[in-house]
Amino acid sequence: FSDENSLDEWDEKVFKKPVTYTVEAQGGDSFVHAVSEGSCSALYYKIRLDPNKHPVISWKWRVNTFPIKKSGDNLLDKDEDDFAARLYVIFPAVFFANSRVLEYIWTKELPDGTVSSSPYTENIKLIVSESGEKAEWAYEERDIYEDYLSAFHKDPDFKIGAVAFMSDSDSTE
Predict the structure, then answer these.
(1) Short-list 34, 47, 52, 31, CA closest to 88
(2) In sequence order, what are the beta bridge partners of 152?
(3) What is the pLDDT of residues 147-171, one digit of tens each?
(4) Angle 50-54-55 (CA atoms, 0-180°, nearest 5)?
(5) How crowded is the C-beta side of 119, counted as CA atoms within 13 Å?
(6) pTM for the whole structure
(7) pLDDT tens string for the chain (173 positions)?
(8) DSSP character for 145?
(9) Three-state secondary structure along 96-140?
(10) Cα 100 from Cα 92, distance rounded (Å)
């Protein structure tokens, strides 16, 4: 994300109304800035990787504002299923309902390492990879194969077909 046109290579999936994603720079580093105001959309990039070769994904992220939730961070709550920062590794299947997803999230309250199924399907596994309010950027590095094995308790059935990131506040406004 080194120039303002970097996002042109990414496709957007809008679930409610679009999140505003812009490329910005600060202190010599560039990054994607997401602003979600009652919105929910993701940017995704199609790839093709063999997860059995232990690909590693790494990124830096920071959260300025967390969604305000009445019941706190609860990974099984559909009514307040909003997170300031999410990163997805998607394993598409021919029959869409069989697809698998690793979803790395930054929560305000839950401890790092917490793993849960999505409130919508067992095929999406939420992994808390960062927790709490922090002013600085957090660096993440994950072995996709190992995370898949840990989350689904089996080897990956499908190749990695896309990566995505998202910010959403459609449930909590």
Answers:
(1) 47
(2) none
(3) 999 999 999 999 999 999 998 888 7
(4) 75
(5) 10
(6) 0.93
(7) 888 789 999 999 999 999 999 999 888 889 999 999 889 899 999 999 999 999 999 999 999 988 888 888 889 988 888 888 999 999 999 998 899 999 999 999 999 999 999 999 999 999 999 999 998 999 999 999 999 999 999 999 999 999 999 988 887 87
(8) H
(9) HHHCEEEEEEEECCCCCCCEEECCCCCCEEEEEEEECCCCCCEEE
(10) 6
Q: Cα–Cα distance between 101 and 148 in angstroms, integer?
A: 9
- List the structure tokens of 52: 């059995």
Q: Where are the alpha helices (DSSP H) in the chain?
A: 144-152
Q: Residue 121, CB half-sphere, CA atoms under 13 Å: how many?
A: 10
- Closest by CA position to 19, among listed 168, 149, 158, 172: 168
Burial track 108-140 (b if 16+ CB lie within 10 A, e otherwise)? bebeeebebebeeeebbbbbbbbbeeeeeebee
Q: Find the Cα–Cα–Cα–Cα dihedral 161, 154, 101, 33, rounded to 10°.
A: -90
Q: Which two tokens stand for residue 90?
A: 């998607």
CB 144 within 8 A of CB 152: no
